[in-house]
Design brief:
The complex is a heterodimer of chains A (217) and B (289). By secondary structure, chain A is an alpha/beta fold. Chain A is built from 6 helices and 9 strands. Chain A is globular, with a radius of gyration of 16 Å. Chain B has 2 domains: 117 residues, Rossmann fold (3-Layer(aba) Sandwich); 159 residues, GAF domain (Beta-Lactamase). The chains are: A alpha/beta (217), B alpha/beta (289). At the A-B interface, helix 3, helix 5 and helix 6 of A face strand 7 and helix 4 of B.
Chain lengths: 217, 289
């Protein structure tokens, strides 16, 4: 296992051990999605794989730019479950038939991960935007198997995983089950002075609520 | 045992040999039909080509998910991912390795080593102490049939005590829950992903599901519907060092509540079942000496 921990610029989080997947839980209006994209912004030479289930590639690419995540076709892939054939995106766009095709997402993911590794990119951050969409198209059991497999893959390859979910639209049992596959959880909420986050289950992280700034561009 | 399925004899032999060299026990099958004959509880993983005589790899994985759902599956194939129709099999979830990838067979070995060790294709979370839990289960459940009458009495008492339809005592092994005693219900072995107890052993103490149809984990569970179960409560059957090897469950056909005192009493019954298992284990140890 690599000791080279994943770091985050301009986000109040300590570094995270390679092989870790976190559940990023919060409402979209509080900046959860933007924070998720920001957590994928690594240093030069790292790669990123994004799974988009509810926004077209062009839109998520624009969101990435705003979050300070630099896109490049040789180090960024977007697994697009929405469709739209966007061709002007500065990343590899890989179509998947839809958010209910978890087999297709998993196979595409393995394929592009392998391609990046072959080209010398051995640190890859993975973001899933979002689990809530997968749960609206598939049952909890199937989504659980997908998440368990993805988390295992990220662990074995010393990657970093960020799985976004809006807890307000799912019951506690669903969120609790999905949390149990992940090494830790980052909660997001709208605070008095803007968005706030807190880490849970991640060693060396503060468990207190801390504000963060969405202005990363 | 790993099952290596490929209609190309040379490719199949090469894959099987690589897996054997890595320490796995491997069975080979040249067709989808022959592979299906090998599904059993000893199945640790499946490596299959997508193009098979008698079907496709994903069709075979669909059958694996029906028969032994926890099994790690790897599609190891000459067919590029873009040419595989995954939409019709969206709920399977498999690993994918193209045969022309560099060191492809080594990657298959790495994937299976990880998947077998960490069991990361299960559709449910595993307890953090799963390995120790299974070791404790093996120690305590060497001959569970010998406890039949004692446990039958306990389940009958439990159903009467709580005024419920049914009670059962079950042990949870690697892939299944097996019941040692049932009163008011007849339950055969159940896949772990289909039992409430799989989730209950992740909780501390007693688990209560007042209405199974209101819980997304169980709302579509056909086994519960067939057994007419709407209410569920269980206490862990837990070793002194905290490994929950099974559960003492009570069921009813109507949603209902369960008081704090009920929880205490059910917990006592779980402890009693554990003590019985422990005593039998000690007797076996004395006999062995």
């Amino acid at each position: 296992m690599s000791d080279d921990r994943y770091g985050f610029e301009d986000v109040p989080l300590d570094t995270i051990r390679p092989g870790t997947t976190v559940l990023l839980a919060g409402p979209s209006h509080a900046g959860t999605r933007e924070l998720g994209l920001r957590l994928l912004a690594g240093r030069e030479g790292e790669g990123a794989i994004l799974v988009t289930t509810n926004r077209r590639s062009r839109r998520i690419a624009a969101d990435c730019e705003r979050a300070g995540l630099r896109l490049a076709a040789d180090s960024t892939a977007i697994l697009d479950c929405v469709g739209g054939e966007d061709s002007d995106v500065p990343a590899q766009v890989l179509p998947v038939s839809g958010p209910s095709d978890l087999t297709g997402i998993g196979m595409r993911y393995s394929d592009v991960h392998r391609e990046f590794a072959r080209s010398g990119i051995d640190r890859i951050r993975t973001g899933l935007f979002s689990l809530s969409t997968l749960l609206s198209f598939g049952d909890l059991k199937t989504v659980s198997r997908f998440v368990h497999t993805l988390v295992g893959r990220i662990d074995s390859l010393d990657g970093l995983g960020v799985l976004v979910v809006d807890p307000a639209i799912h019951d506690d049992a669903t969120i609790s089950t999905l949390s149990q596959f992940c090494a830790g959880r980052i909660d997001v909420r709208e605070g008095d002075d803007g968005p706030e986050l807190r880490a849970r289950g991640l060693p060396s992280q503060s468990r207190d609520w801390r504000g963060f700034d969405l202005a990363w561009e | 045992m790993l099952l290596c399925v490929d209609s190309d004899a040379a490719a199949r032999t090469a894959t099987a040999e690589t897996l054997r060299d890595a320490g796995f026990t491997v069975a080979e099958a040249a067709t989808a039909g022959a592979a299906r004959e090998r599904f059993d509880d000893d199945l640790e993983g499946v490596v299959t080509e997508q193009t098979l005589s008698g079907g496709t790899g994903l069709e075979l994985v669909a059958d694996v998910r029906d028969a032994v759902p926890d099994t790690p599956c790897v599609l190891f194939t000459d067919v590029p991912v873009a040419e595989i129709d995954t939409a019709a099999f969206g709920d399977l979830v498999v690993e994918y390795v193209p045969k022309d990838a560099p060191n492809a067979r080594s990657e298959v070995v790495d994937l299976l080593n990880h998947a077998v060790a960490f069991r990361d294709q299960t559709a449910y979370p595993l307890p953090e102490n799963e390995e120790a839990r299974l070791a404790a289960l093996e120690q305590h459940a060497a001959n569970p049939g010998e406890l039949g009458e004692s446990f039958d009495r306990l389940t009958e008492l439990a159903a009467e005590l709580f005024g419920v339809d049914a009670a059962a005592i079950g042990l949870i092994d690697t892939h299944e829950q097996r019941f040692l005693a049932c009163h008011g219900v007849s339950l055969g072995p159940m896949d772990r992903e289909d039992t409430i107890c799989t989730y209950a052993i992740l909780d501390d103490g007693v688990t209560v599901i007042e209405d199974t149809e209101e819980d997304p984990r169980f709302a579509e569970n056909e086994g519960l519907e067939a057994a007419n179960i709407r209410f569920y409560a269980s206490a862990p059957i837990e070793t002194g060092s905290g490994e929950a090897i099974g559960t003492f469950c009570v069921y009813d056909d109507e949603p209902r509540g369960f008081s704090a005192r009920d929880r205490e009493l059910l917990s006592l019954l779980g402890d009693e079942a554990m003590e019985q298992l422990t005593l039998r284990r000690r007797l076996r140890e004395v006999d062995d000496e």
